[in-house]
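Q: What structure does this chain adopt?
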Amino acid sequence: MDKRFNPLSIAEQLELRQQAIEDVLSHPQWSLPQAVRHLRTTMRLTVAEMAKLTGVAHRTLQDIEQERSEGSVQTMNRIFGVVGLKLGVARIARAQETPAVR
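A:
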């Protein structure tokens, strides 16, 4: 837990985690680095704490957040896996084309 904040109870930590998940899911326009940074900061974790939790190198996590690296799918799944999320592929629904009216 980031030392700049007062310690949180388990219930408060779970609430922050749930809020972080909901925020990421409700903002599909966010880039992966934005989502990673939001998860970490919302859960009040330092980069070092997040790195330890995910098993991703501290430097790798910094590089991803600062958009110096895109990170592999495996790395992203390790990061998002901490909150029960996983990268996936989804079909984008096309707007049905309507014939031009003459």
